[in-house]
Amino acid sequence: MAWKLQRPLVTIACHDDLSASDLTGRYLIHSDETHWVDGPLTTAVRLGAICYLDEVVEARQDTVVVIHPLTDDRRILPIEKTGELLEAAPGFQLIISYNPGYQHAIKDLKPSTRQRFVTLDFDYPSASNEADIVARESGVNRSMAQSLVGLARRVRRLKEQGLAEGPGTRLLVSAGQLIASGISARQACQSAIIGPLTDDPDLLGAISDLVSAMI
Q: Which of 29, 56, 100, 181 is deepest in the core (most CB within 10 A)?
């Protein structure tokens, strides 16, 4: 999106220890003086950049509320430590993302945060597009890419049997890269698809059976 709009992009990986100061900035000591250093959110606001908060539900809710004044008609960022009331430059956009499936039971956005955004739902690519991606990114031929995608689509149905999350395209690319490097297809699937998905013996057995039948 940033490339399409020709806008600078600032990406922030959210986590439990992310503080408001990590977003807005802090004073740092240099020699015998203190200097204010903008955080990534403040930088994006000043530049009119796209600011992307990746896996926003991983951040503490008391940290996330710092974005509230930016996501309504005020479009300002209060910087408490400097007393500055920073108005967003033209072009500034704030984008957040998270996986609503397995995270939803543990973490979720506050309604006051969710209702400040419009939403786009992303699912897996179509089988044909996903095979194109796997073939291009991993180096395997089209036939093997289709087999990996077919396997993934069968495994994804196991969510109804307790699988927390189905294999994403990233795992298929990893498996394809191993295959392209000379590792057998079944061993590659074991290492790059089966192992990362679950430790449950029953699910491991079910996925292994699918691999044996399809690869």
A: 56
